[in-house]
Structure formats: structure tokens, C-alpha cells
Specification:
Elements: E1 17-24, E2 27-34, H1 43-54
Antiparallel strand pairs: 1-2
């Protein structure tokens, strides 16, 4: 697990660490990556907000 703190590449403010996963040799392996920037003045935060607005609600939650 990383002990380093992630920062936004655009504004340099600290961001939360998010756990994503990828498949390696048939097993799901966790990968700690920087999360979205929540600074309202940062252009990266605006991009993240527009992507969330375009995604229909519940699309990630619904699985058959």
C-alpha cells in the first residue's frame, strides 16, 4: 500500500486515495490511485463534475 499522499496534477492540492482494481493472472488486484479533485477553482474538478452529470443515475448500481 502506498504511504505517499496523492495530489491533483492541475492545482497541486491533496486529493483522496481511491481503490480501483485490475485483473492480473486471473486474480483481481487492488490499485490505489488519486481520486477526483474537489477544489471548486480547479479545472480538473469541473471536468469531473461534468462527467458525473452526463452519466445516468444508477447506471453503475444496476447489474443483472
Amino acid at each position: 500500500m502506498d504511504s505517499e499522499e496523492h495530489v491533483c496534477p492541475v492545482c497541486g492540492q491533496p486529493v483522496e486515495t481511491v481503490v480501483k482494481r485490475h485483473k492480473t493472472l486471473g486474480a483481481w488486484v487492488p490499485r490505489w490511485v488519486p481520486g477526483p479533485c474537489h477544489n471548486p477553482k480547479c479545472p480538473a474538478a469541473a471536468e469531473h463534475a461534468t462527467r458525473q452529470e452526463q452519466q445516468p443515475e444508477g447506471s453503475a448500481a444496476k447489474k443483472s
